[in-house]
Every structure is written in C-alpha cells, then in structure tokens.
What we know:
The protein is of the alpha/beta class. The chain has helices at 47-54, 77-87, 103-113, 119-131, 147-160, 177-194, 205-211, 237-241, and strands spanning 5-16, 19-31, 36-40, 62-67, 70-71, 88-91, 165-169, 198-202, 214-219, 222-228.
Amino acid sequence: MTPALETQALAKFYQGDSGLIRAVDGVSLRLEPGEFVALVGPSGSGKTTLLAMLAGLLTPSEGQIRIDGVDLSRMPERQRARFRREKIGFTFQTNNLIPYLTAQENVELMLRLNGKLDKAGKARARELLERLGLGERLRNLPRQLSGGQQQRVALARALAAEPQLLLLDEPFSALDASRRRALRDEVIDLQRRTGVPLITVTHDLQDAFELGDRIVIIERGKVIQDGPRDEVFYRPASTRAAE
C-alpha cells in the first residue's frame, strides 16, 4: 500500500551569524493511510519547520517528500500551491482566520479557492462546524469567538476540502486545561471518523501520549525516537544532561 506520507533524509538549513543552522537534519518518516502521529519535542527542536515542509510551505534544502506517492519536494511552486490547497489540510499555531469573515465563511474559503463552493460545499462547511459544536456560531466573526472556538473553526477549515493529509501545528497550545482536553477529544473523534492520516505537533508529552497511535520525538532537528506510544519513553535532553 502506498504510504500517505513518506520523507527521505529531509533537511532544512539556514545560514546564521555563527554558521549553518540545521533546523531539520536528515528526517525520514513514513505515515500510513489512516494513521495518527504525534510529533513531539522541545521548543526549537525543528517541529514547526518540519511540518511546514510537509505542508509544502517551505522548500527542503535536501531530501524528498512524497504524499500519496506524489513527489512534493520537486514540484514547481505554482503546482505545489495548488496541490497544497487541494490535498493538504493545515492549521497554524495562530489560527490565521480572516477577521472580516464569519466562522462559516472562513471554512468555505478553502472550497471557494478550489472552485468547489457549491450547495454541497456550503452544507459540508456547516456540517463540520456543527460537528465541532459551533452550530450556533456560524455567523460570528473571529473576534466574537473564544480561543478554543477559533481553533475549532481553523480545524473545520482544514477539513473542508477533504484532504489526503491533515497537519496540525500546536493546536492546543493557547488553551486552558478544560478547553485543551475538549478539543483534543474532538480531534481524536474526527480523525477516527474520517480516517484522514494526521500529524499533530505538540511540545506537551501528555498530549502526545493521549493523541497519537505513534509518537515521533525530535530534538535538534533529528528524530531520536519513533514508535507506538506504548513503546516510547522520553526524557528531554535538558533532563538527561543534568544526570
């Protein structure tokens, strides 16, 4: 079976004042259809850079990315932008909702960009928001929504185009404990019902071990562990260094 996502020796380097910065350094991953992976690591470990490359938002310095067998890393920018828009659902840490669009209009935006905002598309946008508990907030602007509600709108928008791959960047980081757990449960339920392969980035170990079928741990741009959640044991580098 073709993997939903596969990377080979993926790397992203930047030239800094003190030399070459290896933000992501030789990462090889494989995500199977329907699989849910939690990508965890401390701040500055390369999680967000890696996710941005997987989403086609950054061009790798080295290596290869294949999504459902298609080589994303070699695509021209215009073709990659279209592929990203049609095939990849992505949420940012800051939600990036359009402030002058309602919750439903924000979700419909991806369908509009893909030329699929017909009657069925409008119904799908509304259904996603209702499924996420926002049925009474369809006409609210982002400023009229709580942080947790905005996260749910961003998640619905990512799902609207029925992507082949869903990538979530720290979707729970700005929420308090109760809202965090509620949204975490909703993400798990949605992933199980839709079967869309999903990678979520988190720095929180509890999130990682409660979310993913599999856990990938990254430090200093390199994968240091990758396995089923009941087989992974992680101690941050700062803790190991203190011993």
